[in-house]
Amino acid sequence: MSVVSCFCFGRTKIFNFIASTTSRSLFSSKTSIPTSSRTKSIVQLSVKIEHRTKFGIAEIDGCSYKGANKSVQRSEPPAHWEKILDGVRKMMISYSKDVPVDSMGSEEAAATIPPKERRFAILASTVLSSQTKGHVTQGATQRLQLNGLLTADAINKVDEEIIKKLIYPVGFYTRKASNLKRIAEICLMKYDGDIPNSVEELLLLPGVGPKIAYLVMILGWNNVQGICVDTHVHRICNRLGWVSRAGTKQKTSTPEETRKALQRWLPKEEWVPINPLLVHFGGTICTPLRPRCGECSISNLCPSAFVETSKPSSKSNKSGLKKRLQ
């Protein structure tokens, strides 16, 4: 997300996400590379970033999520939204694949990881996961951990070129290596090696946008402050007609606009699971180009159904399609 992807939810860009999980599952997915129990536990943070929940609200460290009752200005929900979400959930169950689970020793190892180190690993993995596939994020996180580079102190001391080599080929790895160095320095100076515990402070860190900030609050601090909206969620909510610019009927133009519009009506118990659900849906059925509307069970409730399914055969057709979509 694509700690993540989670995000496939990515992000899973990641992760996915069909039955609700508990804190134990955060460290339980099997990796293909043998590692120590401690290393394996940290590496699973990147898997969780792609599979942070399975279409449900999870718990971290045995504590229920906080912040779900934060007040927000409400607006009238769109028609049939509950039926649509239910339909998407049922479709995604059939599209999900079982993830091998190897919990032997990993749960115990997770308990030995200092909270400060765990939270920084979550932040670092989430930053790496941006615009990067889940397995690539996992590999990069694993290489950092195997080299003892998933703490603020260690990253602050190591040469930036080493970080670049270890996280390659994550998207924008050069920029992310620089951001990780700056993040580590800030966390050491201002938070004693820990990470910020508010969305506002997280957003001040280099490479951290709204989606990452809200996700880190959820996974790092068990605190739900907002919906994690990426391009999948942004696209699908607009296709469904669920969001619009304030005071207009126009589509939202950015994920952040979508987040604010979605939070005005979506019940707070759906704020966490909506991301992995729609990310999975956006990667399998409601794809960016030529969505598979013919296979979608809720197409009869979607105002955009079959509008983008045909592949233009000429420039004129492309132009005509663009006009129809505007």
From TrEMBL:
State the SUPFAM superfamilies in the record: DNA-glycosylase (SSF48150)
Alphabetically ordered keywords of this record = 4Fe-4S, DNA damage, DNA repair, Glycosidase, Hydrolase, Iron, Iron-sulfur, Lyase, Metal-binding, Transit peptide
Domain (HhH-GPD) spans: 128-284
Pfam families found in the cross-reference section: EndIII_4Fe-2S, HHH, HhH-GPD
* Gene Ontology MF, one: class I DNA-(apurinic or apyrimidinic site) endonuclease activity
Q: Which HAMAP family match?
A: Endonuclease_III_Nth (MF_03183)
Q: Which family does it belong to?
A: Belongs to the Nth/MutY family.
This protein's name = Endonuclease III homolog
Gene giving rise to this polypeptide: NTH1_2
